[in-house]
Amino acid sequence: DAKTTQPTSMDCAEGRAANLPCNHSTISGNEYVYWYRQIHSQGPQYIIHGLKNNETNEMASLIITEDRKSSTLILPHATLRDTAVYYCIVRVGNQGGKLIFGQGTELSVKP
Amino acid sequence: DTAVSQTPKYLVTQMGNDKSIKCEQNLGHDTMYWYKQDSKKFLKIMFSYNNKELIINETVPNRFSPKSPDKAHLNLHINSLELGDSAVYFCASSQEVGGGAKTQYFGPGTRLLVL
Predict the structure, then answer these.
(1) Sequence-distant (≥ 6) Cβ neighbours of residue B17 within 8 angstroms
(2) Which of B46, B56, B69, B89 has the fewest CB atoms inside 10 Å of its own CB, making it the most exposed?
(3) B43 contacts in chain A (CB < 8 Å)
């Protein structure tokens, strides 16, 4: 079973920041938080991951709370092409680690 | 260049038939996976291979048999197809040994419809 909790759906206006929350209150000390997204009819796409510190790349920023029990994915300037299901995943294991996908958050970016 | 490719993209077949789905990755990764996404859109791991060795085998019927001829390929053979096998099957790969993010890269999916 998934170890994360996310809202089922969210809306965001085009050009605004999209902030997607995730709760992972049972995360272990050596587990990373990964974010993937799945645009309709495509395979999941890696976005970003982190352990303790906040992370930023060309796609998004990841803010992890100090107690690591929750995190927020930030898309700074959402576009229509960011409409997708976003999955917050806590990585299980180190070798051959499977990803356990929950229901994710369906983000709709509207004009 | 496609990093993780799958064939076929679509597969429509009759109940009881045997079919195979192929996956290839050109990323030099040591681990490959099969995931299944059902009609309710839940993605679940089925199998994982590391350097041609099976390391994850979730509760999947024996009719599903993965085969890894080399570490760049992981094929999925399904015997005696049933209606409930209709789903989208995604292949993925990652580099697990050594440092790094261990990011999984997914293929475009194979849409299987069993009639």
Answers:
(1) B80, B81
(2) B69
(3) 38, 44, 87, 99, 101
Mutate which of A89, A91, A98 to test chain B, going by most B C-beta atoms within 10 A? Answer: A98
Whether residues B109 and A94 touch (CB distance < 8 A) is answered with: no
**pLDDT single digits (tens) B71-99:** 899 999 999 999 999 999 999 999 887 76
CA distance B82 to chain A (A): 23
pLDDT along chain A (111 residues), means of 10: 86 97 91 92 92 93 96 97 95 68 94 94
Q: What are phi and psi of A80, to 5 degrees?
A: -60, -30
Predicted confidence at residue B55, as pLDDT, reads: 81
Size of interface A-B (CB pairs under 8 A): 55
What pLDDT sits at residue A100?
84
Which pLDDT score is estimated for B50? 85
- The minimal CB distance from A96 to the residues B50, B101, B108 is found for B50
Q: What is the distance between the alpha carbons of residues A101 and A37, in angstroms, rounded to a whole number?
A: 11
Strand order in the sheet with A45-50: A9-13, A105-110, A84-90, A33-38, A45-50
Distance CA A101, CA A2 (A): 6
